[in-house]
């Protein structure tokens, strides 16, 4: 069977700024349409990856290709739309004027009217950019990212600072665009965003991809259970029990991740027969993210 061509391909990709190693050798192959989320905490290397893919930063070593072309070439640029975190747009132009201007950069753009309709901008298309709310600005930026009818869109933290309604509105527009056969690569700090939007989630930590799977696979990867209770047994002792892979203390509760819940619990009960408020649950994706981004696999 013929494989679909790579939209974003990286092999042993490294990027350093002086002595700071932002990306420490990642391998990545994004093929076909859909929404791909790169999830990670501050400084994980997400923006560096996007800037390298756009040709705004030079890679230090390894290979990086965007739709089969080197980053930053005209061929690549024509097939890419982008929202960066620090998008600086002319304040005095209206939304419609900005869309018209951006459309002129691309060989086969959507019409301005279609773009306004796809992004539901009708109510403020004739307003100057500086008069828009934060949520409206993000939607206008998204319109600028898609007006060129690109195959690939990079969205760097597209919903940071938006309230939940504005965030959900933008998610709906992003989903619709992916359904048209486009590829969207977005970075986010929000697990909920990745869970709601993405077909595939890549978790980045300290310049490395520590997990790469569908939201449900990431959940499956987290074997075992989370035991939560109030106990007098110390953190140090809990850590050493059979099956325990991590322990955290939250207020009066200890949270113990165990891959052998029966054995861990039996040891906990013999150490502290009075432990109370016990619950045992499957780990949430959030727990998995926390553990993986601390390097615990
Ligand atoms: N222009 C630069 N010069 C020097 N160091 C940089 C530069 N850009 C990023 N870094 C460093 O590279 C590392 C990765 O930063 P990057 O912005 O890629 O992370 P991020 O995952 O996007 O973080 P955030 O979620 O905060 O945006 C950090 O240690 C950061 O300080």
From TrEMBL:
Keywords, sorted A to Z: ATP-binding, Nucleotide-binding, Transport
Pfam families: ABC_tran
Entries under PANTHER family matching the protein: ABC TRANSPORTER ATP-BINDING PROTEIN (PTHR42711:SF17)
Single Gene Ontology MF annotation: ATP binding
Protein's name according to its UniProt entry: ABC transporter, ATP-binding protein
Residue intervals of the ABC transporter domain: 8-231
PROSITE patterns per UniProt: ABC_TRANSPORTER_1, ABC_TRANSPORTER_2
Keyword Transport listed: yes
Chain coiled-coil ranges: none
Keyword Magnesium attached: no
């Amino acid at each position: 069977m013929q494989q679909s061509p790579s939209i974003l391909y990286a092999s042993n990709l490294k990027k350093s700024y002086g002595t700071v190693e932002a990306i420490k050798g990642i391998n990545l192959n994004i093929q076909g349409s859909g929404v791909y989320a790169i999830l990670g905490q501050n400084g994980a290397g997400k923006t560096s990856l996007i800037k390298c893919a756009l040709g705004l930063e030079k890679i230090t070593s390894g290979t990086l290709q965007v739709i089969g072309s080197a980053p930053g070439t005209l061929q690549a640029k024509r097939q890419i739309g982008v929202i960066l975190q620090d998008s600086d747009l002319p304040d005095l132009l209206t939304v419609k004027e900005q869309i018209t201007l951006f459309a002129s950069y691309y060989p086969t753009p959507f019409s301005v009217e279609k773009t306004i309709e796809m992004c539901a901008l009708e109510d403020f298309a004739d307003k100057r950019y500086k008069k828009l709310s934060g949520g409206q600005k993000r939607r206008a930026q998204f319109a600028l990212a898609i007006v060129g009818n690109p195959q690939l869109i990079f969205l760097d933290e597209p919903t940071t600072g938006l309230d939940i309604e504005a965030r959900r509105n933008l998610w709906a527009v992003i989903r619709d665009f992916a359904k048209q056969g486009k590829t969207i690569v977005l970075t986010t700090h929000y697990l909920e965003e990745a869970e709601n939007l993405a077909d595939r989630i890549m978790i980045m930590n300290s310049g490395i991809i520590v997990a790469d799977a569908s939201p449900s696979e990431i959940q499956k990867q987290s074997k075992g259970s989370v035991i939560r209770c109030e106990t007098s047994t110390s953190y140090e002792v809990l850590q050493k029990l059979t099956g325990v892979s991590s322990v955290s203390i939250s207020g009066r509760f200890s949270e113990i991740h165990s891959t052998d819940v029966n054995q861990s619990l039996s040891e906990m009960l013999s150490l502290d027969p009075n432990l109370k408020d016990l619950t045992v649950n499957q780990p949430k994706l959030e727990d998995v993210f926390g553990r993986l981004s601390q390097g615990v696999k």
